[in-house]
Design goal:
The first copy, chain A, contains eight helices and no strands. Chain A is mainly α. At the A-B interface, α2, α6 and α7 of A face α2, α3 and α4 of B.
Amino acid sequence: MMDIFDYPALTTVMYWITLVAVAGSASSGVLEAGKKHFDLLGMIIVAIAAAIGGGTLRDVLLDRTVFWIRDQSYLLVAICAALLTFYLARKKHLSPKVFLIPDAVGLSLFAVAGTNAALLMDVPWLVASFMGVITGIMGGVFRDVLCNEEPLVFQGSLYATAAWVGALLYIWLRYKQVDIGLAAISASLLILIIRLSAIRWDIGLPKYQSRE
Amino acid sequence: MMDIFDYPALTTVMYWITLVAVAGSASSGVLEAGKKHFDLLGMIIVAIAAAIGGGTLRDVLLDRTVFWIRDQSYLLVAICAALLTFYLARKKHLSPKVFLIPDAVGLSLFAVAGTNAALLMDVPWLVASFMGVITGIMGGVFRDVLCNEEPLVFQGSLYATAAWVGALLYIWLRYKQVDIGLAAISASLLILIIRLSAIRWDIGLPKYQSRE
Amino acid sequence: MMDIFDYPALTTVMYWITLVAVAGSASSGVLEAGKKHFDLLGMIIVAIAAAIGGGTLRDVLLDRTVFWIRDQSYLLVAICAALLTFYLARKKHLSPKVFLIPDAVGLSLFAVAGTNAALLMDVPWLVASFMGVITGIMGGVFRDVLCNEEPLVFQGSLYATAAWVGALLYIWLRYKQVDIGLAAISASLLILIIRLSAIRWDIGLPKYQSRE
């Protein structure tokens, strides 16, 4: 997914960080599925959807080769992380909070990589930023839809918001001819800071509740 | 989406009507999401799914370029309509009934455009009509799935039915060599009439309720 | 979907068995939708999603032509089976158990055909087996998501498990140069035996229930 960057070393580093993020998302899938009566394989499938769903939807919409079809590391990491989480969660209570940091890292990496992939295909800026959001959040949405829950990422703590702001920053920096590595790191950091601040101080967007 | 018609003037008119229909569908997404505890951006994403989800699924299935990837007006109109609805809905109660007319207009336009797009790719007639139905109704289905609700469009008032009947009429007229503009207008009007009559006089298909 | 096998006679037999399996899956869709207040056409659409959803997702992910786009028999069989089930279910109580056998046949055929389609595109073995699982189970997942229920296939009786084990056997046999017809029949039979045994003796994978 990250072979799009010009820096071989950075690409390698980001590839490994991405696999960590995939593992974190897969774990969140198991913990969510654990609230239901799913069996082990059901949980693994929810975990896979959580881990690779966002990038998959982006690739299908942009008509690119789906990123995990040629490199089975993504699937393998998601399955192993799901098995490990399943094993640990049966032994002791695992708080979903354990996964907030890898999840936020995943959000920031996925959003920037998704935006970049869209930019490379020369789509309009608003579409490119939306692809970043899709890549960042849709795994979590698929996870919750498969578990028959209202998507958590729609409910606050600036989840989608952080992804969108970071995607827009990345596009603006690239438009201003800023070096791709610098732009990627800046945008990722911004997403991470917004998301972690929102969790820490419970910041959110305005809501509206229908009076029905 | 409408560049498929031979009449430049008609194409322009339909393009603008389509954007109105996109706005109407987006508004329905915000009102539906307002029943949940979604934040502003969550609502915007539900609104986008409601507005462009049907045409997106059709394009992915037919392996065409997704219609909103190259022209960001669709995304922009959906986001603006969502923001406006959010602002108005916080001020005063907005009845979902306000959006029944733009929604019915959207259904009729989307269904005919979807059928036409499929016919151009030379698929069998039953498949072409099903593509029209998908284009017309799946936005509403995605909206309700994301809100963790049973899809409203499956529950009556001839929603999918109107789309399917109109799609079949369009295919039959085109098969009979009727002019494309005339066929499109006739089929759209038929869908509009069926849908609005069904709402007005509460007409529906037979149902069956399992006895469990 | 089955034109991938080298044996014309086997291909024809499997084509017809597949249509029976499509009909069985469509019926399960109507029975599931009957628990909700869906109208006739809503049920037909749920039935179509149950019958062809898995293969559709596989084809979209692998960027193949979606299998029912060129041959409308699949759609036609799904619709007819849905209408028949609707008619019968209004007359007398239909136990979902009636459809367990065609459903298990469908699972085994779809899983093997999906794995084979992926192998032909030269994807890694883990990805190929996962494509088999997707083809086998996602129709049932879409059915339950559209009905706003927790997916039944995640909840036990070795549904996804049977598909995955059979897919892996098929890949191993093909890797060992075993004849394609023999490999397909062995893998399908294994899936059928696992699934039917699991139903008969209520065997399942370990589960874990979160303590929250």
